[in-house]
Structures are given as structure tokens and as C-alpha cells.
Amino acid sequence: MPGPMFSARSEESSLAASDVGLTAVSDLAVAAVEQIRKGMRDRETALPAGRPGQVDDVVAAVLAGGILPDRGRGGRDWPELLRGFVAGIVDLTADTVAANLQAPVLAIAAVADFAAGVTGQSVDAWESGPSGIALERELIAALWNLLGHSGGDGVLTPGSTQSNLLALLLAREQSSLGASFENGIGPTRRRPRILASELAHLSIQRAAGVLGLGQDAVIPVPIDAENRMLVGAAADRIAGLAEDEFPMALVGTAGTTDFGSVDPLDGLADLARSHSAWFHVDAAYGGAAMFSDRARGRFRGIERADSVSLDLHKLGWQPAPAAAMLLRDPATAIPLDCNVACVNPRDDEQAGYVGRFARTLQTTRRADALKIVATLRVLGRDGMAELVDACLDLAVHAADRISAHPRLRLVSEPQLSVVVFRYLPVADGESHVISRINAGIRRRLMRETGGSVGRVDVATPSGLPEVCLKFTFVNPYLSQSAVEDLIDMVVQAGSAEEAQG
Ligand SMILES: Cc1ncc(COP(=O)(O)O)c(C=O)c1O
Predict the structure, then answer these.
(1) Which distant-in-sequence residues (6+ apart) come within 8 Å of 209 by Cβ?
(2) Residue 106 pLDDT greater than 60, yes or no
(3) Where are the domains positioned within the chain?
(4) Which UniProt keywords apply (predicted)?
(5) Is-contact 207 217, C-beta < 8 A?
(6) CB of 325 sitting under 6 A from ligand 1
């Protein structure tokens, strides 16, 4: 009798969702959690302090013997790998982390994500994960409901970079349907233009490039003193388009990365409608703030968008990926429609076996709806709102403290949970010197304290941007006194940078 083909039989290599495998999963999960707990306790700082290359040294030591040894090292190797990994992570629960839109993860979300992994579901073909498919459909409806619209469609994506791409792809398809024969004599070849605020996320430009429109198809629209797109200026830009150009899409940002500012969405919806342009809202950051009644008012008009990008791995506290591209009119998804025998044969679909393949550019895709739905049901709208409000409060508290501090200048009042400010040296210097000091503060904090704050290069009329610092509050459990300590940390680092000259 020939022996088994696969010889590495061990607890670790049993099939996770099998009876035997689940026992292994349980044992391994408990051990992994303990290892993470120990690793987190051993950590002294949020980021590994010191030079960045030190992390590579730790990882290299853990990987001694190579990633793909000729003979498997067995399960005892795994805790060691996890130890090295945890030693080099950023601790998103730490008091000294306020740099990015990278939220700490809720326990329920982490475990639901794990459950999706254990069961190995995919949502492309019906038979790959029927309940994940149904959950995703229901979740999309619930998210539209949150935004104030019913009857919309959409799909979960790896993040808003991809959501923005997908939305602009559909905008392009829609515009070519409407524009191609409008002069009645044949296809016109007008160049599509996308209008977005100067502060729109770079992924808008990159999407335009990927779509073959060229990154310069995105026309930056000036902003007001509160960093919101000027609707009048957008109208002027449209009026100024050349004869062979047309406004394919207007992109409003609901929560800019740099300032958390929310564009006047209602006005932009009107403008888009009056030019038959697609209206896309990039609510990657801000969308989830709509759980809070306190914040909702800022988003009026989002319900009129043709498409919306919304992340729940920012505010939402999910492990990435947890993002949605929402489509107002299900018919506009038709360009993504396709059938292939190996995934979604048309006759199967007609018999009700419908997966999510024809709604996205991906094929295999995790059942990410599970973790989001689990979180929303466990916390409810009020629980989510409480977490959102806690982040908003932290930003207000930080802004108050910064305003009162002689060595700091508040650059923008918080609109969501972002606060932008600048360290002011004792010896007043030229702007580029102050910029250098502020840039230095960020690196010094990472190197010496293992803490992190964000950076914003604020445009100025001189053309020379001012380097500023930014707190991004996405940890709702941070205390107000921790915020005060963070401010002290920044000021101390600023003094040290200044002393260094
Ligand atoms: C406004 C905005 N849009 C898009 C993105 C990209 O989102 P993701 O990282 O989920 O791809 C970000 C990321 O921070 C963002 O702030």
C-alpha cells in the first residue's frame, strides 16, 4: 500500500474547520493569545524605539533557517515567530499612538475575522460561501440605510483606494453611455475630467491614472478656510473646461485625511446633477462617524451620491480589510457584470445561485461582512456612536490644550477626530526652519519614545508648504490625560530638535 502523499501530519496541519482541526485551532488560538499577551506586556513602547532597521534585525533572527526550510520545523517554531512579530508591531492600543487612520481592533471584530478565516469562506461563487454572500448583501443595505437611502447596491472592498477606483470606473462607463452619441453623428471624443478638492485622497488621482484617463484628468478645486471644497470654485472650474472636455465626475470628500474636513455634499450633489456628472463621495474616514447623531449633520447630501467609499477599518474598529463601495443605483453596476462557467454560469444564476463575483474586480474574496455585522449587532448604533463621540471629544480636548499652549499653534479646528497643529520654536525662525523642526519632531518621537504623531504639509500662498503635525484620534479608549501627555511629548521633542539646531 502506498503511504500518504502528505507526511507533515501534525496538529497544525489539520484542516481548521474539521472536528480534529477545531480542537487544534482552539489550542493554537489559546497559545497564540497568550503569546500575544506576553509580547504586549514585554513591550515598553508603542513602536519599537531605536533605528528602523532594528526591527529587521529582530525579524531576521526569528527567520534564521529561512522561510521555506527543506524540512518543516514543526509547530514549536510558531510561538517564536509570533514573538518576533509582536515585538515589532505598532501597539494601536497605546497612549502614544495618534498618527494614522489605523484604528485599534475591537475584540468581537477580531474574533469574527478569525472565524471567517477558520471556515475559509469566499463570496465570489454562491457555492464558495452562501451565508457570507447573504450577509454582505444585507450589510450593504444597512450601510445605505445609515447614510439615509434605501434600495442601493454595492460591494465590500479591500479599502477605499479600491472603492474609489471602482466608483470612478463605473462613472466612466456611465458617462460614455450618455456622452458618446450626444451630437447625433457619432461618438464624441471629449476628455473626461474629475473634479475633487485640493485635499482629496491621492487614490483619486491614481484611479484616474489606472483608468487610462491620466492623473491630470483630476482637476483640483480650491478649499475654504475650513478646508472644505468651494462649490462655487468647482462650478467655475467646470465652466472653464475646454470644449473637448466634460465633467465626468465630482468627488466630495467626507472626512479629508489631513484635516477631517467634510465637503459641502449637498451643494456638490446639486452641481453634479446640473451637469449630469457622477457624484462620488469618498467617506473612507468620515462615513462611519454617521453612527453618531452629533456628527451626522455634517454629511447632509451623502444620500444623494451615486457612489460612496466607506471604510470600517478606520472609525469602525475592524481589522482591515473592512470597506464598502456603495452604489446608489444598482443598474450602474452593470459594467461589472460578467459570467464565466467556472464561477457564476448564467443558468445557475437564473436558478438563484448568485455570488458576488459580478460586482467587483476581485474573484476570491473573504467573507468580511461577518466581522462588520457581528460588531454592528453587538454594539448597536448607540454603541458605535459612543465610540465615535469619544474620538471626537479627544480631538476637541487636544485642540483646546494646543490653543492654550505658548509653543504650539492650532492650524485647524477639529471637524472630526483630527487635529492639525505646529510646534513653534522659542527663537522665531523662517518657515522652512520651523518646518524642519516639525518634521524632526515626528522622527524623534518614533526613535526616542516609540510614539507616533501624523504629519500634514499645509499649502501656503508662497508655494512652500508648512510642515505641521497631526493627531488622529481613532482610539476611543484614550484618556484626556493621555492626550495631555502626548502634547507634552511633542513639545519636549520640539525643544530637543530646536536645541540640536
Ligand atoms: C479620504 C481617504 N480616502 C481614501 C483612503 C484610502 O483608504 P484605504 O487605506 O482603505 O485604501 C484614505 C486613507 O486614509 C482616506 O483617508
Answers:
(1) 215
(2) yes
(3) 11-88, 121-366, 380-500
(4) Antibiotic biosynthesis, Decarboxylase, Lyase, Pyridoxal phosphate
(5) no
(6) no
Alpha-helix residue ranges (DSSP H) falling in 50-129: 53-62, 77-87, 107-119
Shortest-distance Cα residue to atom 4 of ligand 1: 160
Q: Say if ligand 1 is within 6 A of residue 157 CB.
A: no
Ligand 1 contacts CB of residue 332 (under 6 A): no
Q: How many CA atoms lie within 13 A of 224 on its CB side?
A: 12
Domain 121-366 annotated CATH 3.40.640.10? yes
Q: How confident is the prediction for the chain on average, in pLDDT?
A: 94
Atom of ligand 1 nearest to the CA of 164: 4
At 76 the pLDDT is: 80
* Torsion angles phi and psi, residue 2, rounded to 5: -65, 145
Per residue in 186-202, pLDDT tens?
455 799 999 999 999 99
**380-500 has CATH 3.40.50.720 classification:** no
For residue range 277-323, list pLDDT tens digits in order.
999 999 999 999 999 999 999 999 999 999 999 999 999 999 999 99
DSSP 445-475: IIIII--EEEEEEE--TTS-PEEEEEEE---
Residue nearest to atom 16 of ligand 1 (CA): 257
Phi, psi of 216 (to 5 degrees): -80, 5
Is 227 near ligand 1, meaning CB less than 6 Å away? no
Among candidates 47, 130, 112, 127, which has minimal Cα distance to 86?
47
Cβ contacts of 226 within 8 Å, gap of 6 or more: 261, 412, 413, 415
**Distance from the alpha carbon of residue 285 to the mean position of ligand 1, in angstroms:** 7
Nearest-atom number in ligand 1 for the CA of 253 is: 1
Q: For atom 7 of ligand 1, which residue has the closest CA?
A: 160
CA 301-306-307 angle, to 5 degrees, is: 95
Please tell me if the CB atom of residue 253 comes closer than 6 angstroms to any atom of ligand 1.
yes
Give the number of residues written for the chain: 501
CA of 12 to the centre of ligand 1 (A): 36
| Residue of 125, 117, 159, 152 lying closest to 138 (CA atoms) | 152
In angstroms, what is the span from residue 443 Cα to ligand 1's centroid? 23
Substitution candidate for ligand 1 out of 100, 102, 161, 455 with most atoms within 8 A of CB:
161
Separation of alpha carbons 294 and 298, rounded Å: 9
